[in-house]
Design brief:
The chain contains seven helices and eleven strands. By secondary structure, it is an alpha+beta fold. It has one domain: Sandwich (Immunoglobulin-like), CATH 2.60.40. The longest helix is centred in the last third of the chain and has 14 residues. It comes from Coleofasciculus chthonoplastes PCC 7420.
Length: 270
C-alpha cells in the first residue's frame, strides 16, 4: 500500500486573522468600466441593479468531521496562514463534509504571505478511512503567494483510466501541506478537508442548462453543493475580472459562510 507523504499526527494550530470591512455594495460602487467585452458588459448592466448577492445557507448533508488540521499557522521558524475555502462552524476544529457532484472537483486554499520563501506544496487525497492514497501531487506556489491556490483533480485514477477519481456516495479526506524543511516535516503547516461526492440530480442538470453561466454558482448554492458553488464562481471571476456582480457574489458568498475576512481583502489574488 502506498504511504502518504504527509504525517497524520494531530498537532495544535492557531490562527490570527485581522478583520477587514467588506460589503458587496462597495464592490459595485467602486466599479469602473475598463475593457469589458460586450457580453460581460451586458451581464453587468443587467444584474447590478437590485442584485441581492450570493448566499450559501442550504446544506444537503448534516455530516460533520472533527479535524486534526483546519486553518493552520506554522509558529516555528516560518509563519504562514493556510485557509481552506470551507464554511466555518462555531465549534472549533470541526467542519461540515463538503459535497461535490463531480468526479474531479476543484479545491481552493488561501495562502498568506510568509517570512520564509513559499515555493512548493503537496496535495494528498485519501480514502474515507485515511489509510489509502487516491491521488497526490506536488504544487508549485511560485508567484501565487499571497493568494488563492486552486487544485483541480483529474477525472480518473492514475491506475485505471476508466475509474472515476471520486466515486458517488464515497467520502474522502484531503490534505494540503507546505514544505519548508524536508529534513523535519513536523513543522510543515497542513490543513485538512473532507469531501463527499453525491449524484447529480436531474433537476440540477436541467436548472444549470436553462440558467446563464454567470448564475451557475447560485444554482449550486441552492442545491447545497459547496464545492461547485465556490469553484465555479472562482472560474467566472478569473474569466470576467471586472464584472461587478461577480465581485459582489464573491464577497457575499464568503461572508455567508464565515470567511468574510477573505472576501474583500483578497478579491483579486487569483
Amino acid at each position: 500500500m502506498k504511504k502518504p507523504l504527509i504525517s497524520l499526527k494531530t498537532f495544535s494550530i492557531t490562527l490570527s486573522l485581522g478583520l477587514v470591512m467588506s460589503a458587496s455594495t462597495k464592490a459595485i460602487a467602486g466599479f469602473k468600466p475598463t475593457s469589458l467585452n460586450q457580453e460581460n458588459r451586458a451581464l453587468s448592466e443587467t444584474l447590478v441593479a437590485g442584485y441581492k448577492g450570493l448566499q450559501f445557507k442550504r446544506w444537503r448533508s448534516q455530516e460533520i468531521r472533527r479535524l486534526s488540521r483546519g486553518m493552520a499557522r506554522c509558529v516555528g521558524k516560518a509563519q504562514v496562514d493556510l485557509i481552506p475555502l470551507l464554511p466555518q462552524l462555531p465549534t472549533p476544529n470541526e467542519i461540515p463534509v463538503e459535497l461535490t457532484v463531480e468526479a474531479n472537483p476543484t479545491f481552493l486554499i488561501y495562502v498568506s504571505e510568509s517570512n520564509f520563501p513559499v515555493k512548493e506544496a503537496q496535495f494528498t487525497l485519501l480514502n474515507g478511512k485515511g489509510d489509502k492514497v487516491i491521488y497526490e501531487k506536488a504544487i508549485s506556489l511560485q508567484d501565487k503567494v499571497p493568494g488563492f491556490v486552486r487544485i483541480s483533480l483529474p477525472e480518473t485514477t492514475q491506475i485505471d483510466s476508466e475509474q472515476d477519481l471520486l466515486e458517488v456516495e464515497q467520502t474522502y479526506n484531503w490534505y494540503f501541506t507546505i514544505s519548508y524543511d524536508p529534513s523535519d516535516r513536523s513543522l510543515d503547516p497542513t490543513i485538512q478537508g473532507v469531501v463527499k461526492r453525491v449524484a447529480k440530480e436531474e433537476s440540477l442538470v436541467q436548472e444549470l442548462a436553462k440558467t446563464p453561466e454567470i448564475n451557475h454558482p447560485k444554482v449550486y448554492a441552492d442545491y447545497g453543493i459547496w464545492t461547485e458553488t465556490v469553484s465555479s464562481l472562482a472560474q467566472l471571476r478569473e474569466r470576467y475580472p471586472d464584472n461587478p456582480q461577480l465581485e459582489a457574489d464573491w464577497i457575499d458568498l464568503l461572508e455567508s459562510v464565515g470567511l468574510d475576512n477573505l472576501g474583500f481583502n483578497a478579491l483579486d489574488k487569483f
